[in-house]
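quick one: magnesium ion bound model?
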Amino acid sequence: MRSLSVLGATGSVGASTLDLVRREPEAWRLVALTAHSNATELARLALEFSAEIAVVADEARLPELREALAGTGIATAGGPAALVEAAARGADVTVAAIVGCAGLAPTMAAIEQGGVIALANKEALVSAGEVMTAAVARHGATLLPVDSEHNAIFQCLQGNNTAHVRWITLTASGGPFRDWSWEQLSAATPAQAIKHPNWDMGAKISVDSATMFNKGLELIEAHHLFPVGLDRLRIIVHPQSIVHSMVEYRDGSTLAQLGPSDMRVPIASALAYPERMDTPCAPLDLAAIGELTFRTPDEDRFPATRLAREAAQAGGAIPAVLNAANEVAVAAFLAGQISFTRIAAQVEDVLNAYMPVAPACLSDVLAVDGEARERARQLMEAA
Ligand code: NAD
Ligand code: MG
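yep, here:
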């Protein structure tokens, strides 16, 4: 039996993780389950999985959580500091599935305990970069990518020497707007943006898929997870989302990982690593799918991947600024305050506005994130 914590248990990745755990109850002992504000759902999950502790990040929801779990023996806590404390209880495996830089501090707390970190929360790695990878090395933690592309690349690198890698190719679905004109993009609504053709995901990552910021963040994520050099990382649009990514070696061999567009596959790969476990996903039926197609991304309509590549090249605090500016812009778009095409434009404006110094520790990263958010809001108000 292995112990498990799920940070962001009420989200899309959290639900997929718990669906796998539900099928193997004898294999897992739940430590911490966390959520932002849905205390009712969190309490339900904590009871079902007999978690040690349930933590709600929004402290105003703690009374509700307490009441729902009264007399069950399950501990409850609320607020961002409690989230970090719960992650610091340590577990054999921690699934980092909070969305955004809000997941960084608890993920770092889990890393400091030295277990396996199954990382879905790409924004945390994008923002912290070397601060996180250094902590992983220092504490002897194991960072396993859950993001489907990175999980695919991780699998394609097994048993190979990264010195022989010619290219790592991240596939991108292109999102719901991949064939839209600039005029159409300018008028795209939040409801259209969160309706992804292949994947069922949270609202923020769905908008990121539509802008291609998701792929931009993933480029930076790959740069930290697989340090083969930025010039060896590239992106290809693959609308069917069946080939999850590829690694080409110097001899001309390309290894790819294929699977259904279901996050339970990469999550299972990380949960069971280095073993394998069953998933309820239907086997891949390539004959039914028929065609796998590929095309070059269009960075004129979707500038996000260019901005992310430039941010990765600049390094230091710049990826954290890019991420924070994008989080603010996506929230503003979802709230109906800015247009779809303003998301990338606004991120670029924030990147051009100032040059923070490279962070050396977690609190530096959080300070960069906070200032970038403030700058993004100021620019938005001035516009
Ligand atoms: P989601 O919105 O469905 O869930 C997010 C979870 O984080 C929820 O449990 C929510 O309560 C919690 N949360 C949100 N804000 C918080 C805050 N301020 N403090 C504490 N907790 C907070 O998101 P998701 O789609 O599950 O994505 C989670 C992460 O996984 C993201 O980083 C995303 O990019 C990544 N990811 C998701 C998918 C997917 O298919 N959904 C695929 C690859 C990577
Ligand atoms: Mg992905």
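The chain is about 45% helix and 15% strand.
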